[in-house]
């Protein structure tokens, strides 16, 4: 067995030992606990702004709930794109290989996750917050065509950014139990996905020529921008009486939120940099997205 197969075998073993079925694992009918935030308040996109100062504690909690529903909506969107990419990756693979079998195992994980996120949105009572038409169509293009380094890099960016938030949420006992449980299940299973994508990405970079790397850098920066923009849908602000346009503008220039975005992308940005996937003319997009 080569390293690719050995990694896949290990991931298959862990998946068999430690996987969750959120449908039975989570008490979906438990009422929300009054007075608890859905994400640490300092991670809210408006934290520290004058708009935030103008909100009551109750409204701040309400906003945190809508921000979680927005992130879960983004999660479903990323995962749908990811599932299609992985199925296409599998299409070209030998089904007897561990690598191919793990690709399908990951698709199975994501199927459960997307149902979990859908149920989470439903349980919060918030609306589903879809991607903008532009991002929705960009996703449609990416999921139908992406292959090679930029495919696995885009997967990694989405997974690692969400993961940063979820690790913090699952460890924070002051937050709503439902979001902590959802985060815990997701963190445990995503650790395997991150491992798989990181190693596969490194192998693909090794065998890619300079033209392919240059193209990948551009698509990767664009994907990072979409993911960062997509986390908080501007319509969440309407839930606390703030015009979406105003909330969006305040969030964009909020140094606390910019620091949060940088913090969430730190790990994946460093890794992509090590692999030479950061740079070129599109690099400015990383900065404009406040991911660096
Ligand atoms: Fe997932
Ligand atoms: Fe994943």
Give the topology.
Blueprint: H1 3-17, H2 22-25, H3 50-53, H4 57-91, H5 98-124, H6 133-145, H7 149-171, H8 177-206, H9 210-230, H10 244-252, H11 255-274, H12 283-288
Helix pairs in contact: 1-5, 1-8, 4-5, 4-6, 4-7, 5-8, 7-8, 7-9, 7-11
Describe this structure in words.
It contains 12 helices and no strands. It is mainly α and 292 residues long. The longest helix is centred in the N-terminal third of the chain and has 35 residues, at 57-91. The mean pLDDT is 94. It binds fe (ii) ion (2 copies). The site of one fe (ii) ion has 4 residues, from helix 8.
Assigned CATH architecture: Orthogonal Bundle
Secondary structure: number of strands: 0
Give the uncertain stretches in residue-range form.
Answer: none
- The sequence of SSEs as H and E is HHHHHHHHHHHH
Instruction: Using the coordinates shown, work out and report the CATH topology.
Output: Ribonucleotide Reductase, subunit A
Helix percentage range: over 70%
Average pLDDT confidence is 94
Quick summary:
With 292 residues, this protein is an all-alpha fold.
Which descriptors would you attach to this protein?
292 residues, mainly alpha, Ribonucleotide Reductase, subunit A, 12 helices, 71% helix, globular, binds fe (ii) ion
């Amino acid at each position: 067995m080569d390293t690719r197969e050995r990694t896949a075998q290990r991931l298959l073993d862990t998946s068999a030992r430690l996987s969750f079925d959120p449908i039975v694992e989570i008490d979906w009918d438990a009422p929300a606990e009054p007075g608890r935030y859905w994400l640490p308040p300092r991670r809210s996109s408006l934290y520290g702004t004058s708009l935030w100062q103008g909100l009551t504690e109750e409204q701040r909690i309400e906003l945190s709930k809508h921000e979680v529903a927005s992130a879960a909506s983004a999660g479903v969107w990323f995962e749908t794109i990811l599932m299609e990419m992985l199925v296409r990756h599998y299409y070209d693979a030998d089904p007897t290989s561990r690598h191919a079998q793990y690709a399908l195992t990951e698709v199975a994980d994501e199927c459960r996750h997307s149902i979990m996120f859908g149920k989470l949105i439903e349980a919060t009572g918030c609306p589903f917050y879809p991607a903008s038409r532009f991002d929705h169509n960009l996703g449609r293009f990416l999921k139908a065509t992406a292959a090679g380094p930029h495919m696995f890099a885009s997967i990694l960016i989405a997974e690692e950014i969400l993961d940063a938030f979820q690790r913090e949420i699952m460890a924070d006992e002051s937050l709503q139990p439902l979001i902590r449980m959802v985060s815990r299940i997701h963190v445990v299973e995503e650790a395997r996905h991150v491992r798989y994508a990181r190693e596969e990405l490194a192998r693909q970079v090794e065998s890619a020529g300079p033209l392919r790397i240059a193209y990948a850098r551009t698509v990767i920066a664009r994907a990072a921008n979409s993911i960062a923009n997509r986390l908080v849908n501007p319509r969440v602000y309407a839930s606390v009486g703030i015009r979406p346009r105003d909330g969006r503008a305040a969030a964009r220039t909020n140094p606390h939120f910019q620091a949060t975005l940088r913090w969430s992308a730190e790990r994946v940005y460093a890794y992509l940099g090590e692999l030479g996937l950061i740079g070129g003319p599109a690099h400015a997009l990383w900065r404009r997205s406040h991911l660096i």
